[in-house]
Amino acid sequence: MNIYKPLNSIFKPSVSYFSGYSIMHYDKEFPLLNVSPGPASISENIFKKLYDDIYSKNKYSYGNTPLEMSHRSPEYLEILNNVNLKIKNFMEIPNQFKILWTQGGGHGQFSAIPLNMKRINKNIKGGYLVSGTWSSRAFIESKKFINSENLLQNFYKNLTSIEYDRLPAQISIPSDIDYLYLCSNETVNGIEFKKNGIEYPGRNVLGKTKLIVDMSSDFLMKKVDWSNIDVAFACTSKNMGVAGANIVIIREDLIDSLSDNHSTPCTLDWKLYAETNSLYNTPAVFNIYLLNHIMDDYINTMKTIENVNDISKEKANILYEFLDNNQIFKPVVKDKECRSNINIPFIVGDGNEKMMEDFLEYCSKENLVGLRTQTPFSYKKLNLKEPLRISLYNGISVADVKHIVAIMKNFTLIYFK
Ligand code: PMP
């Protein structure tokens, strides 16, 4: 149970510019609430285990500390097998899928997808549902290697990928598309393919078209209907610990269908990862070790993926309830069917920059950080109002969200007194 910093009842904004990019603790007496979009918060329980493994009682349980562990040791192999098993059970992944651990993060897979898929058919065509910044990057990357098409080009006519704030009610797939690509939660835009909202296109719609999904920011937060999926991937820096590794969950028969084409760079070659148990090169040992503890924590505290989803909805509802009924903070995505439960962008004071910076300064003084990120997607250049964003990954609790809302309410009270 967190003991939060008592809220300040007076706030005097500084006259100088306050950017709000820093993620520093303001008052070290109290916990820091970090709502960054990733790398993100990791629960205190995990740090206790990490501390034990490095400094105290478990120090030698792996032969060495986890920072020094050989990836060829039986101890690491046991951890890797455990992680795979825990993820398979928790996410109810059927046996016909294989788990790979790649490097190069999500971007590595943006390139790996076209490069591997063209080993099924050298004229392969990818259909990309570009619904935000990350699917846009994946689409741009695919065009370096294959013929691909943005299927939502007309839907978002004249908008740039940072302005997208809705999803089409129905998705139709042209008959010449071999694989469909989508990002189930656009981390920057705050648009989500939700189970109860717009579902993934099902097998009845997909037919023989393969479905590839970027689950980087919603993996381990909601149930997945694996019967629709052919390949899913997620970088580790949101719900799976620290940046560096990336999970790829892939149908075994898809791996079998890849030709032995040795022109795929080894670090992107799905077949090579599968044949070597993701040990062709030195894997991100520490990530996998940390994830073993994180999975234990999820399993012990949240029990099931349905439960995580319920908690996630509860957190989002608390925040949206406040944002929807307030004069200063407005959510960017209005459509309830597709607005994300995980990454919630909002505008302060209808784009008033000074008010936004004052708010960030107030948050910083309350130990709340990570609302503003220096993204490569420039709002200023496009003359757009810059949103702030709160990310509610599994490391953020319901109590944390209530405290965040209390901070926002208090800001409005004392700022306009
Ligand atoms: N996809 C999504 C949905 C993301 O949020 C991100 C990173 N924030 C990426 C892909 C890119 O991942 P990486 O930075 O690990 O390459």
Low-confidence stretches: none
What ligands are attached or bound here?
A: 4'-deoxy-4'-aminopyridoxal-5'-phosphate
Q: Give the strand tally.
A: 14
Mean pLDDT: 93
What spatial form do the alpha-carbon principal axes imply? Answer: globular
| H-E string | EHHEHEHEEEEHEEEHHHHEEHEEH
Instruction: Profile the largest sheet.
Output: 7 strands, mixed
Return Rg in Å.
22 Å
- The secondary structure category is alpha/beta
Strand content: 5-15%
**Numbering strands along the chain, what is their spatial order in the largest sheet?**
2-10-9-8-5-3-4
Helical amount: 25-40%
- End-to-end C-alpha gap: 32 Å
Number of helices: 11
Summarize the structure.
The protein is of the alpha/beta class. Helices cover 32% and strands 14% of the residues. Helix 4 links the parallel strand 3 (125-128) and strand 4.
